[in-house]
Design a protein that fits this description.
Helices cover about 25% and strands about 25% of the residues. It is α/β, with parallel strands linked by helices and about 260 residues long. The structure holds S-adenosylmethionine (SAM).
Amino acid sequence: MTLTGGHAIGLEAPYDHQVPPSLLPPPSGHPGKPPPPRALGLRNDVYRRPLEVALDRVGIARGWKVADIGAGQGDVSVALAEMVGREGRVYAVDSDPAARDEVARAAAARSQVVAITQVVEDLRLPELVDLVFCRFLLLHVTSPALAVDRMAQATRPGRFLVAQEPITSAGRVGGRPLSMPHARHPDVGSLLPALVRDAGLELVDSWAEAPAWAGRGPVGSYLASLTGVHPGDEPVVLAPLVTVVGRRPEAGQAPQ
Ligand SMILES: C[S@@+](CC[C@H](N)C(=O)[O-])C[C@H]1O[C@@H](n2cnc3c(N)ncnc32)[C@H](O)[C@@H]1O
């Protein structure tokens, strides 16, 4: 991500490692209310709330088989592993062999996590799964439509695909748009509902959400971790993340 006229960087995992959890705001939208019961173990992830909402929406539970595509360092894979328990399974898939080592390290104590080196365009899992998940993946692939199609095919009939992708240019720092010159499709989030529908899935839910802040806090620190420059007192709206929850129709059933 680059601030327009600013500093070239790559968008990596959306984590703020520099801010102690005590400085993090409560999940907003519910001022004063305690965090929701689903503790994701991703307290420093500024995009954790849309993830929690999406997982609640599909009703993820113990025993589920799930796949985290473009798993990166595996933080989400580990959080998913805690939710599905030892009787479940998490396939953590990434095209980068180094990611497999990272995931293996992060999930060392969780035997239900299986790290696989594979490109999403050739996705072949050992079994159909209850949930295929991706976040910040489609902006990097050559063909988002092909990638969504492969993920849809990996989903068990009647079960779910959750995709979360940004609209980078809708983010702002001091009122100026964000850009990400190194990503192939930095605004792919704006196409996501149609991509999921066109892959033959039923749209269950879809929305966009962006962390926003001014001054000291996790949002500015996250941006600083990406750009190397802290926005200071400038107001920041991070790239809105479009979440789409899709469901693969049961065999012989047309998408609604
Ligand atoms: C920005 S990271 C996202 C990490 C993680 N999903 C998260 O939200 O924290 C993108 C990841 O996608 C992987 N990736 C990029 N192109 C891919 C492809 N064609 N197939 C599978 N993984 C890919 C990269 O290696 C990288 O680890």
